[in-house]
Amino acid sequence: MVDAASIAVSRRKRRAKGDKIDGEALLRTLMAYKRGEPRVCSMVRAPSPQDEDRRRVCRERKTLVAERTTHINRIKGLLFAQGVGGYEPARGDRRRALEDLRTGDGRSLPEHLKRQIGRELDRLEMTMEQIKAIEAERNALLAADNVPGARVARLRGIGPEFASVLGGEAFYRHFDNRRQIAAYAGLAASPWKSGSIDREQGVSKAGNRRLRATLVQLAWLWLTHQPASALSQWFHHRIQSGGARTKKVMIIALARKLLIALWRFETHGEVPAGAVLKTA
Predict the structure, then answer these.
(1) pTM exceeds 0.70, yes or no
(2) Does 153 share its domain with 274?
(3) I need a surface site. Which of 25, 112, 139, 189 has the fewest CB within 10 A?
(4) 236 and 137, same structural domain?
(5) How confident is the prediction along the chain (280 residues), in pLDDT tens digits per residue?
(6) Strand 189-194 with 197-203, pairing
(7) Handedness of CA 3, 9, 11, 17 (dihedral sign)
(8) Do residue 136 and residue 200 come from a single domain?
(9) What's the CA angle centered on 30, arms 24 and 31, to 5 degrees?
């Protein structure tokens, strides 16, 4: 399967586009690829139906968590307009606490507003129940040793959600080397060299954005839960003489190194240097 974004096109002024033009460009690209020019385009490896179905678990949970946050913010916004603060809709006593609320001038909540918030709480509770169900399904999948991501869940600081995302978005497929998996996550370097110009543009961001965002979050948590690891010590050594911008740059570099280390642990059983496993 050809990656359409990898086919070179003319950048001179306004570009003409049509089915005939695109078909001819694709045909010329395929002919060059078959002649032995592998860099003329990139090929996409489509996941199997089983792998695609397995990754729905972590993706659905992310959607539900965003929906839960929307309901919570909407309820807080309705109450803030009445001068009410400090109410937490996610707590177990949300119904009882709602009855005890008073507006900023000491009045009881208006009846229609209370009913609207009650309906929002109904939707919030249903979303929370669905999150619990999808988390139980996710944990059941990770209980099997042959499922991608089950091995990295043994490391301290990596919970079932991180392990599920890593397994469903990256470790389900084969990579020949560390450069391939870094490029797949969009964490490969993007140099800009021309004549006397030689600088780095940062990571390409051309890979799996869900995986890349998860790795950045995991990199911050890795520093907390694995402070004695070689990766954490490398990070702290590099930011000693830098400021806030250096820390942002180096956390991306740590995410790339961490992805490679976890990939080696998942595929070859090579524990990252200095990392601690969870106790049984």
Answers:
(1) yes
(2) yes
(3) 112
(4) no
(5) 888 888 888 888 888 889 998 899 999 999 999 999 988 988 888 888 998 999 999 999 999 999 999 999 999 999 999 999 999 999 999 999 999 999 999 999 999 999 999 999 999 999 999 999 999 999 999 888 788 999 999 999 999 999 999 999 999 999 999 999 999 999 988 888 888 888 888 888 888 999 999 999 999 999 999 999 999 999 999 998 888 889 999 999 999 999 999 999 999 999 999 999 998 6
(6) antiparallel
(7) negative
(8) no
(9) 90
Measured from the Cβ of residue 33, the count of other Cβ atoms closer than 10 Å reads 16
Query: Residue type for 277, please?
Result: L
What is the domain count for the chain?
3
- Of the candidates 121, 113, 135, the one whose C-alpha atom is nearest the C-alpha of residue 90 is 121
- One domain, residues 204 and 132: no
- DSSP-based three-state secondary structure for 123: helix
The whole domain housing 65 covers 51-142
Phi then psi dihedrals of residue 136, to 5 deg: -65, -40
> CB pairs under 8 A, 24+ apart, for 229-238?
229/272, 229/273, 229/274, 229/275, 229/276, 230/272, 230/273, 230/274, 231/257, 231/258, 231/261, 231/272, 231/273, 231/274, 232/274, 233/274
Buried b (16+ CB within 10 A) or exposed e, 178-201: eeebbbbbbbbeeeeeeeeeeeee
Co-location of 132 and 160 in the same domain: no
Q: For residues 38 and 58, state if they share a domain.
A: no
Are 35 and 85 in the same domain?
A: no
Cβ-proximal residues to 224 (8 Å cutoff; 6+ apart), any chain: 157
**Domain stops at, among 86, 115, 142:** 142
